[in-house]
Amino acid sequence: MKRRDFIKWAGLGVAAGALPGCQSSGPGWERSGGRKPNIVFIIADDLGYAELGCYGQKKIRTPNIDRLAAEGMKFTQHYSGNPVCAPSRCALMTGLHTGHAQVRGNKQVGGKEGWVLGSTIGGQWPLEAGTVTVARILQEAGYATGAFGKWGLGRVGTTGDPQKQGFDHFYGYICQRQAHTFYPNHLWRDGEIEWIEANKDGKESVYSHDVIAEEALKFIRRYKDRPFFCYVPFTIPHVALQVPEDSLAEYRGKWPDPPYDGSKGYIKHEHPRACYAGMVTRMDKDVGRIVKLLDELRLRDRTIVIFTSDNGPTYAGGADSAFFESAGPLRGLKGSVYEGGIRVPFIASWPGKIKRGTTSDHVCAFWDFLPTCTELIGVAAPGDIDGISMLPTLLGRPQEQKKHEYLYWELGGRQGVRMGDWKLVRVRPGARIQLYNLKDDIGEQDDLAEKRPDVLARLAKMLETGRTKSEAFPMPKPRPPGGRRS
């Protein structure tokens, strides 16, 4: 079934139980006492693969997320949709990798000068009208749908407006450019600007993360008596480095911490390492609050909770990824198609359904979330997506798990392909292709391109066949040797 046909079926068929592939008591419904399971999906912004205690972090405390992993399943080979945020979120929402997705970069409509407060002509590249998103599918299936945090897939009033893409409610940052401060003078609520008077004129009184977390909790309380999809794309730990004093105090003085001078467009900070760690731990506390609320409302066994990150750790704004060993053994950071830019933590917890304390090496990615949700609630997924449901792995049936032939990423001419244990990297159009065996070389240090031309040729085909052309995000032309692009 094609995506445009799917949304017609969804609009007409779900209420009557007539959607192809829909059963009166689908697999997820049966496992949650006859009620469709709630879904809570939490994304950190620029959190590295190794910035959680359960993934090896030694300096930053994340007890609540670590507990979530201990109570559920931790994935070691999960990938974000892209090395940067907007296309990564597009992959999550649509089930398409960035060789096929509408949004393939952090492109601004109208360029950098097109962003104007209250305008619909600026902001990030919007999703098209009628896009089949996971939120729209769940909404049509009777779910209350809410998003709290950073959207980044189209300004209010554009076709990419979250409330035109399947969300009943939205609160937070519409465009990522605005999200470069944690003390904004406004956020967006259901299509309207909500001014934060206490933050006007550069004052730092209301920390945006705190009010966003509160809105997510309010949504869960409001819709506790019906199935809900609570999407929480937090902005921590994306720079700027800003955190309230109580969180900064938890780490100040623990290590040498040279000041950050605020270069390259971000604000300065006297204790950048302590600030960064404090930001992550503050986010961890709110993950704990969400889980605690589910327990208090007796919804925990009816709710699958997922935690992940939108891409690898940053190199900007005073964040010290080397000090925290944020990418662990992986090469590269945010923006790179090496493993450090795209391999991310992924934790799923659902008491009584997902076995406690398990680890999976299943190779999967953001575009698998949509078909996982459709199988979870017993409806058919669109037939032209790249994702494969992860539900068999989550529910302890790995023998039933279908696997990807390949995974594909692209960003501004950079391309990455994973096929089995093999990984191809091209850092720019026309550059020499690199080849790595991730089973033996997780750090992508030993380039085997010359030694394994047979494997190289097989993966190199995907650089062309794994993508479709995009007018909005064309593949840049190769640079001539020693010169500019032709």
Question: What can you tell me about this protein's structure?
Answer:
This protein has 486 residues and is an alpha/beta fold. The chain has two domains: 3-404, Alkaline Phosphatase, subunit A (3-Layer(aba) Sandwich), CATH 3.40.720.10; 412-465, Arylsulfatase, C-terminal domain (2-Layer Sandwich). Helix content is 24%, strand content 15%. The chain is built from 14 helices and 16 strands. The chain has helices at 3-13, 27-30, 63-70, 85-94, 134-140, 208-222, 245-249, 272-296, 321-324, 339-342, 369-377, 391-394, 453-460, 462-465; strands spanning 38-44, 73-75, 78-79, 144-150, 169-173, 186-189, 192-195, 228-233, 303-309, 346-349, 358-360, 364-365, 407-411, 414-419, 422-426, 434-437. The strands form three sheets. A ten-stranded mixed beta sheet has the order 7-6-5-4-8-1-9-10-2-11, sandwiched between helices. Helix 6 runs parallel beside helix 8 (272-296). It is globular and about 60 Å long. Residues 4-26 have low confidence and may be disordered.
Tags for this entry?
single chain, 486 residues, alpha/beta, Alkaline Phosphatase, subunit A, Arylsulfatase, C-terminal domain, four-stranded antiparallel beta sheet, 16 strands, 24% helix, 15% strand
What is this structure, in a nutshell?
The chain has 486 residues and is an alpha/beta fold.
Give the CATH class of the largest domain: Alpha Beta
Judging from the principal axes of the Cα atoms, what is the shape? globular
CATH architecture of the largest domain: 3-Layer(aba) Sandwich
Query: What's the main sheet like?
Result: 10 strands, mixed
- Taken together, the total number of domains comes to 2
Number of helices: 14
Task: Briefly note the structural class of the backbone.
Answer: alpha/beta
Cα-to-Cα separation, first versus last residue? 41 Å
Please name the fourth-level CATH homologous superfamily of the largest domain.
Answer: Alkaline Phosphatase, subunit A
CATH topology of the largest domain: Alkaline Phosphatase, subunit A
Rounded to an integer, what's the Rg over CA atoms? 22 Å
Strand order of the largest sheet: 7-6-5-4-8-1-9-10-2-11
